Amino acid sequence: MTQAQDTKPIHPAHKGLRSTFIGIVANTLLAAIKGIAGILGNSYALIADAIESSTDIASSFIVWGGLKISALPPDDDHPYGHGKAEPLAAVVVSMTLIAAAIIIAIQSVREIVTPHHAPEPFTLIVLILVVVTKETLFRFVSEVGQEVKSIAVKSDAWHHRSDAITSAAAFIGISVALIGGRGYESADDWAALFASSIIVFNASRMLRPAIGEVMDAAPSSEVEDIIRQIAKGVHGVIALEKCFIRKMGFVYYVDLHVTVDGGLSVREGHEIARQVKRAIRASNPTVAEVLIHIEPSDLLNE
Question: What is the distance between the terminal CA atoms of the chain, rounded to a whole angstrom?
Answer without folding.
Answer: 64
